[in-house]
């Protein structure tokens, strides 16, 4: 079963942050419609398992930076695609990995094994 990527709601930030907080593990993918690397990352993300073992269920949200510029500023994203992880409703880390399912899963599990980073 493919992992679904849900749109982040730029019109209702409270609902978006509520959804992040409700997920055991959540990823926010910041993209741009014209970004080829963003499309490749999205293709890799949908191949991740829907559950990360002891870490629990995974939810992935996507926000277009042209529709949600405030997220770019808030999380200090300088290059696309941007990928940010939350665990237990708390900001955890920015994720950097090649756009392959194996590399993404490894980078995510490695980040979740470390203590949370301070939120930008």
Automatic annotation (TrEMBL):
What is this protein's record name? Thioredoxin domain-containing protein
The source organism is Plesiocystis pacifica SIR-1
Task: Give one Pfam hit by family name.
Answer: Thioredoxin
* Annotated signal sequence range: none
Thioredoxin domain sequence ranges:
22-108
User: SUPFAM superfamilies annotated for this entry?
Assistant: Thioredoxin-like
